[in-house]
Automatic annotation (TrEMBL):
Any Pfam family the entry gives: Flavodoxin_1
Domain Flavodoxin-like: 24-176
Cofactor(s) this protein requires: FAD; FMN
Keywords carried by this UniProt record: Amino-acid biosynthesis, Cysteine biosynthesis, FAD, Flavoprotein, FMN, NADP, Oxidoreductase
Taxonomy, superkingdom: Bacteria
Protein name as it appears in the record: Sulfite reductase flavoprotein subunit alpha
Organism: Leifsonia virtsii
UniProt-listed PROSITE patterns: FAD_FR, FLAVODOXIN_LIKE
Sequence segments annotated as region (Disordered): 172-192
Ranges of residues in domain FAD-binding FR-type: 192-409
Length: 558
């Protein structure tokens, strides 16, 4: 591929650098791959100007040597509720440590990606933008905030932004050195390194008759793996050989060297690009490669209509090879197609174990993805990958993702945990941690799923925790066991008076799971509960906002 920045076999990023500062440096902070993909697309277009344009992650740029650039464009997402993505955290610490005027007259622009479901939408980008300005850098182009439909809005902004940046007077200043030792000194060495894990135990949690396939995995490490309840684990998968074989059958010699790199096509398909996950940007790229295709233009018209629901319906059930087939693009050169594909991203899972009780092992609760596609039965990339690693015991790469606010409070503080489905995972960790400690605080769990008989995850464990006093209250809601669907938010409304009592006692409320439906429904239920207590919906919203500001209402949703 032509990306300046690539992932190596261990999931670590490797960048190119030169002795001379690039005319434009594009840096990205990315948690799930969206900002990285977008930065890659902007880099490709900018490089066509004939100018020297570099592309790095924010973290990698710091470690490449003394930071140098003439003009700067930053693309960053916001992780969780207002936090820097993991590969931007060190850069942010470094940026905050610069002296006033350190970046005086540096031309820059910032593109922010966020999710408007969160209160602090695009906060990471705003923070970086504001700090650059405070250090004297010159905002050449007003930044743009992109929601989850960033592929529609970013394209219109990025072209003119690159042109205006390249036309700006280049920066001739220098920054303080920030090599690996310097960054560690400034940030406290908080960067999380890639580690090697093996699956040593796997157990299916969902029972026969369930519409889901939920598996409990236990991972072991060759050395100590330190973490806290509330943390997540990033798993770096590879694509299965069977899927790669399908691509090779279409596009030819698996040993062909891609873009003059010492990499075979098979290797690139297995390790570098998403083969299952589709996205609108792929179609936009195909329209550039094959502008005369009526099939492609039909989907482009759908993209331009702004009807995201209809577009998602068309993409649903298709993987990348399906899109190429249905849009008559199998005759395009594979190198050109690869340039429009997203880099293969890590998959993140809430840790379901306690370092105090499960010493030496990390537990994950994984809901498998499988569906019928045009070429048979498809499985999610990580679903396939983890199932294979459970069978062969082969090592693979992971990285800890530390929680920011999603952490247990002091041992004497009560907690309310709302985690339907696999959202129960971090609360299993919370409860096991408290079981191992001497705290006497109350713990209340709301759990839900489809059917009590098939989908009650960790049922025996939760009953045991109740018997031992680690779980004070347990309320469950199984939506399909009665004519009228019943969810965790309905249980919250049923027990609103008690929840208010817990809040008045200083309880923390945690929510984990689906961000599109469950999390907003829980928000509404809690607002109703607080309205009953305050007598005013306005006061209820203020009370909920206060809980969030105090860190007492925290979500980990996806």
């Amino acid at each position: 591929m032509t990306m300046t920045l690539e992932m190596n076999a261990q999931g670590e990023q490797e960048g190119t650098s030169s002795t001379d500062a690039a005319e434009l440096t594009i840096l990205f902070g990315s948690q799930t791959g969206n900002a990285e993909y977008l930065a890659h697309q902007i880099h490709q277009k900018a490089a066509k100007s004939g100018q020297h344009v570099d592309l790095f992650s924010l973290e990698e740029w710091l470690h490449a040597g003394p930071p140098s650039t003439k003009r700067l464009l930053i693309v960053t997402s916001t992780h969780d509720n207002g936090h820097m993505p993991d590969n931007a955290a060190e850069f942010w610490d470094w940026l905050q440590g610069q002296e006033p005027g350190a970046l005086d007259a540096l031309p820059y622009a910032v593109l922010s990606i966020g999710d408007s479901m969160y209160d602090d939408f695009c906060k990471a980008g705003h923070d970086i933008d504001g700090q650059l300005e405070a250090l004297g850098a010159v905002r050449v182009v007003e930044g743009i905030d992109c929601d989850i439909d960033f592929e529609f809005s970013a394209g219109k902004w990025s072209g003119p932004a690159v042109e205006q940046l390249l036309a700006a007077e280049p920066w001739s200043g220098t920054t303080a050195s920030a090599g690996p030792s310097d960054v560690e000194a400034q940030t406290g060495g908080t960067g999380e390194r890639v580690r090697t894990a093996r699956i040593v135990h796997a157990q299916k949690l969902s029972k026969p008759g369930s519409a889901k396939s939920v598996v409990h995995y236990e991972l072991a490490f060759d050395d100590d793996f330190e973490y806290q309840p509330g943390d997540s684990l990033a798993v770096f998968p590879t694509n299965p050989e069977s899927l790669v074989d399908e691509w090779i059958a279409v596009f030819g010699n698996p040993e062909v060297v891609v873009h003059e790199e010492p990499r075979s096509l098979r290797s690139v398909l297995r390790e570098d690009v998403e083969l299952r996950l589709t996205h609108p940007g792929l179609v936009v790229g195909l329209s550039r490669l094959k502008p005369g295709s009526a099939a492609v233009q039909r989907i482009i018209a759908l993209i331009q209509s702004g009807d995201r629901e209809e577009l998602d319906a068309w993409l649903w059930g298709r993987d990348v090879l399906d899109v190429l087939t249905d849009l008559d693009c199998l005759d395009l050169p594979i190198e050109d197609i690869l340039d429009e594909m997203r880099p293969l991203q890590h998959r993140d899972y809430s840790i379901a174990s306690s370092p105090a009780l499960d010493e030496g092992r990390v537990h994950l609760t994984v809901n498998g993805v499988a569906y019928e596609g045009a070429r048979g039965r498809y499985a999610g990339t990580a679903t396939d990958f983890l199932a294979a690693r459970a069978q062969d015991g082969a090592p693979f790469s992971v990285r800890r993702l530390p929680a920011h606010e999603f952490q247990l409070p002091a041992s004497d503080v009560p907690v309310v945990m709302i985690g339907p489905g696999v959202g129960v995972a971090p609360f299993r960790a919370f409860l096991r941690q408290r079981q191992a400690g001497a705290g006497e605080a109350d713990n209340w769990l709301f759990f839900g799923d489809q059917h009590r008989a098939f989908d009650w995850l960790y049922e025996e464990e939760l009953s045991d925790l109740q018997d031992k006093g680690a779980l004070t209250r347990l309320n469950v809601a199984f939506s399909r066991d009665q004519a009228e669907k019943h969810y965790v938010q309905d249980e919250i409304l049923r027990h609103g008076d008690e929840i208010n009592e817990w809040i008045n006692r200083g309880a923390y409320i945690f929510v984990c799971g689906d961000k599109n439906r469950m999390a907003p429904d829980v928000d509404r239920a809690l607002t109703t509960v607080l309205t009953r207590a305050t007598g005013s919906e306005t006061d209820a919203h203020a009370a909920l906002a206060a809980l969030k500001a105090e860190g007492r209402y925290v979500k980990d949703v996806y």
